[in-house]
Design a protein that fits this description.
Mean pLDDT: 88
Helix content: under 10%
Largest sheet: 5 strands, antiparallel
Distance between the termini: 51 Å
Structural class: mainly beta
CATH architecture of one domain: Beta Barrel
Number of strands: 33
Length: 375
């Protein structure tokens, strides 16, 4: 095996191991909260799953609003690790409830919670595998993929199962719902467009690698990365390939689009800016650190934020890839940062502070949660 392939597989194994440890390594009954998953900002609140609980904080100052369950030691609802989906009046999350006996199996549960107070609205436990990524809300449905290879659509008001679509492998990607269509990839190397109403397939696109990210949409074109080291542009109506761009390693995280430029990061930590119309490279920046998730853009599109597995959050100039600032943390960053106005939020795995709010312009701390305590 030559040096480039050794580096490729080392990077993939390190990133994959970190994901699996973060998801399954803490599923035992004695697990303590040590990580945050992806973050969702809605209004003035920040929503996150923190293993034992779903936590909701004020985005401005990190003050707790509510948590589910309130006391995880008395009311065990499993291990929460997928990014919450938030819509008017509802928050939908998922957890894995450990097996209760020697012959029993873990349960994988979708929970719908009241957005204001966090009370349970309904639950669904019909999937056989783990939920690795979150779902999407749209058209009165909650749609989520599962490691049993199926995509489930649940009634957002009642939790009733509306339809199931079966793929050929595990589904680790969060679906994108646009109007009456669900776009979602699978580890079976297919990317699907489904009817939102009934789950019937409209088209599928086959690549040489798995799909684990959520696509970005711009002017009728979907942009999605694959484990075949390529970034694809697909016609959203037909699935026809418009162009492909070759990176150095897997594209796991979701791309971001601003104007005429697509931004993507492969698991080597190579950041690319690509022309949205032609697929031609505009610039490339090698961070030389493993990266699990995709980039996030500032609201004006001038900066690009990338979190690396070593815990560093990088802010890049979107025009040329120049690193404007970098901030280290004690832990790992395995999810896409969240941006709201002048603040960028990062989730930190295995660190004393599990979430940080930083100034977009200079990376200075605004707050950290849990708060830093002085001895």
């Amino acid at each position: 095996m030559n040096r480039s392939w050794r580096r490729r597989w080392l990077t993939v194994l390190v990133v994959s191991a970190a994901l699996l440890l973060g998801v399954s390594g803490c599923a035992g009954g004695s697990a303590r909260p040590t990580s945050w998953t992806g973050l969702t900002i809605a209004g003035e609140r920040l929503y996150a799953a923190d293993l034992e609980q779903v936590q909701v904080l004020n985005a401005s100052d990190s003050d707790p609003v509510w948590s589910f369950p309130r006391d995880p030691q008395e009311d065990k609802r499993g291990v929460f690790y997928v990014t919450p989906a938030v819509d008017e009046g509802i928050v939908v999350v998922a957890s894995q409830v450990p097996a209760g006996g020697f012959f029993s199996q873990p349960k994988n549960v979708v929970w719908a919670l009241d957005r204001d107070m966090g009370g349970e609205l309904w639950r669904f436990d019909g999937a056989a595998g783990q939920y690795v990524e979150g779902g999407g809300l749209g058209g009165g449905l909650f749609v989520i993929g599962n490691s049993d290879g199926k995509i489930y659509a649940l009634d957002a008001e009642t939790g009733a199962l509306r339809w199931v679509f079966e793929t050929g492998h595990r589904v680790w990607a969060t679906p994108l719902i646009v109007a009456d269509t669900v776009y979602v990839g699978s580890l079976d190397r297919h990317f699907y467009a489904l009817n939102l109403s009934d789950g019937e397939m409209r088209w599928d696109f086959h690549a040489e690698g798995a799909f684990a990210g959520t696509p970005a949409l711009r002017d009728g074109t979907l942009y999605i990365g694959s484990f075949d080291d390529r970034l694809y542009a697909l016609d959203a109506s037909t699935g026809a390939e418009r162009w492909r761009f070759a990176g150095e390693n897997w594209f796991w995280g979701s791309p971001a689009v601003h104007g005429d430029v697509v931004y993507a990061v492969d698991v080597n930590g190579s950041v690319y800016a690509v022309d949205a119309e032609t697929g031609e490279q505009i610039w490339h920046r090698a961070l030389e650190e493993p990266v699990r998730a995709g980039p996030a853009l500032s609201e004006d599109g001038s900066q690009l934020f990338v979190g690396s597995q070593d815990g560093t959050l990088h802010a890049l100039d979107s025009a040329d890839g120049f690193v404007v600032w970098s901030r280290e943390s004690e832990g790992q960053v395995l999810s896409t940062p969240a941006v709201n106005g002048s603040v960028v939020y990062e989730a930190v795995v295995f660190g004393p502070q599990r979430i940080r709010a930083l100034h977009v312009d200079n990376g200075r701390d605004i707050w950290a949660y849990p708060p830093v305590t002085e001895e």
